[in-house]
């Protein structure tokens, strides 16, 4: 099926019709990725850093052009998208700087111990080596930061891997333009030909992840799509790592001490909930609050003035509307709504569904229903036992948050309950906003991600695409032959 851009504000198609990538083209791309990997994986860390810096510079130089087409395809707005390009180039430079410092690439030496076993052992040199060509699946909601040159591609390139990228159909022109800019920058920087490639179409993704020449996959998107790809990756004759970020409700627990100013807190909640029209993987989908009518009334009053924003695509809107209707019908939730949605384009009114903890305990499956979009679930609880009973029903999450004026034994129990479910726990902070830094962890127990041991954001994301190799008893003069940073001529 051919692919064409759609303007979410109007629902109208525009731009060139893009044909799906053919089987022959897939084979050629992967063959080139294999050849490029053989060279790139043996390139020094400092040389790889220079290439990442060049990619960042190229994106910065083309920001205005990139943002213009991305806004037409996603309706995310010029300011948001301009900031996202900046985040993307910051990611590239952050990995480049890590390489320059020797992070994640420097070998470790365990000197020989001349003693009887088990204390004695020969000399070991442990290195981290690139895993091989990687398949990256672009996300719908971040056309830059989690797309062609996003964190998955940046960390894979930094590790020494070549990358085969599947463009997301919600922003095909943005993806193609990003790739064209990147390809020129790579050529100018002297990177191996075929180090990155881009394909389009549903079948392209299936073909790439099942190809025996691909060594790992990285994905950001829906639970259904990510799980299907994960299963394909595991069903191969030779299974491969598949790092999928699939979805999360990101529970936020509020204690009574945090509600001293209900109007301010209600406004902050709605700001986080409706950021990017709620189309964030870190959206605060479920808010647990004490049974407080004043807070609910403040949410209702402020929400009534909030304008609807367009969805990324018609499919995203349809799934959101279905999930919201299901929760309302099965839990008898009280519906609070913002301003009415226009009939043109892909809009829905922002909404908050209010239910009691007891109602949710009767239907715990709805705690796992991610209404990806401008809808939040507020669960009111009467006492701590009721709160912990509901928290125990949660699935894995990317982020868990606690709002409280202090941390006593009760709050410590909540923090530990959240830590058992989430990859990041924030205190007095909303889950939206994911800093690109060494201490970040963007992952969590399934279904938040398919590997709770790894992060897709921050410099540690590079470890997903590195595998350890220990050399035993190697002569000192041979070290240069097995460490990429000392390859002759680099």
From TrEMBL:
Gene Ontology terms for molecular function: oxidoreductase activity, acting on the aldehyde or oxo group of donors, NAD or NADP as acceptor
The entry's keywords: Oxidoreductase
Residue ranges of every copy of the Aldehyde dehydrogenase domain listed in the record: 3-444
Keyword Oxidoreductase attributed: yes
Pfam families linked: Aldedh
Entry protein name: Unannotated protein
Organism expressing this protein natively: freshwater metagenome
Taxonomic classification: unclassified sequences, metagenomes, ecological metagenomes
